[in-house]
């Protein structure tokens, strides 16, 4: 009976910590690993593994920007891919609503529609971004987090 | 004398800390419920007549179905608007990715209808009142990630209390 009580209070403590941690990670800040090299050399600068597997960069992301959806040019954001909502991508905002963007491959100039933004990876060689799927949805940025500073781990 | 005051202040501070911790726990619980389980929404506008009233309905919407991918044609859903990310709109899902959707482009002016295949990872939403609804016919298919919740119950007005059923489509 005593051990049951201890287990119960332990469970309550874990539950409380989990709740608070989840709320903080949803509303304020959280840590995400960066996979892939589409943002190199900003994140994950090594492409080849010389000493074995290279460790992914981990970044601290803040979520205060999601209140007002106010982003600026040059912000690095995390968002869910429009073609697969489970996949999260990390890119840099190049164009905001109303901007005109020149696409490198075709000689077209595209105007970013209202509610959308144009994102591109820093590593233009290997990056699936607005060049491939059109102006990205600004609010697909539901997990959009403004990266304030990153920590190499 | 000074020591007793200090003791009182200390116990007062500890009590205040405990109470605020309790309040913080409750707020976190509210946030988790609102984000992951069930939320309340006030809908208004003519785009979902006759299903939803013009002057506003209070509905309950659950957040589990969009997360596990159980949203299909015929469901009334809350969706973040693709043209204004600060607004959440209520519409009905007409087609999911891969579906071929036929819709009337502009019912007030002409009878012309168009057919479109919903792209991968997107859904097609329309209001029940197609004469006065700003939906996928105007802004195109919406990415699945913008789905916020699936409406399942109506609370207000009291005469309409009950489940929000599926319309035969």
UniProtKB/TrEMBL annotation, chain A:
Listed CDD domains: S26_SPase_I (cd06530)
Domain Peptidase S26: 8-101
Transmembrane is among the record's keywords: yes
Keyword Cell membrane: no
Active-site residue numbers: 38, 91
Compartments in which it is found: Mitochondrion inner membrane
Name listed for the protein in its UniProt record: Mitochondrial inner membrane protease subunit 2
Organism: Hevea brasiliensis
Lineage of the species this protein comes from: Eukaryota, Viridiplantae, Streptophyta, Embryophyta, Tracheophyta
Automatic annotation (TrEMBL), chain B:
Localization per Swiss-Prot or TrEMBL: Mitochondrion inner membrane
GO-annotated cellular components: mitochondrial inner membrane peptidase complex
Keyword ATP-binding in record: no
Keywords noted in UniProt: Hydrolase, Membrane, Mitochondrion, Mitochondrion inner membrane
Pfam entry (one): Peptidase_S26
Transmembrane segments annotated in the record for this chain: none
Keyword hit for Chaperone: no
SUPFAM superfamilies, per the entry: LexA/Signal peptidase (SSF51306)
GO BP annotation list: protein processing involved in protein targeting to mitochondrion; signal peptide processing
Domain of life: Eukaryota
Summary of the function given for this chain in its UniProt record: Catalyzes the removal of transit peptides required for the targeting of proteins from the mitochondrial matrix, across the inner membrane, into the inter-membrane space.
UniProt record similarity statement: Belongs to the peptidase S26 family. IMP1 subfamily.
Protein name: Peptidase S26 domain-containing protein
Organism annotation: Hevea brasiliensis (Para rubber tree)
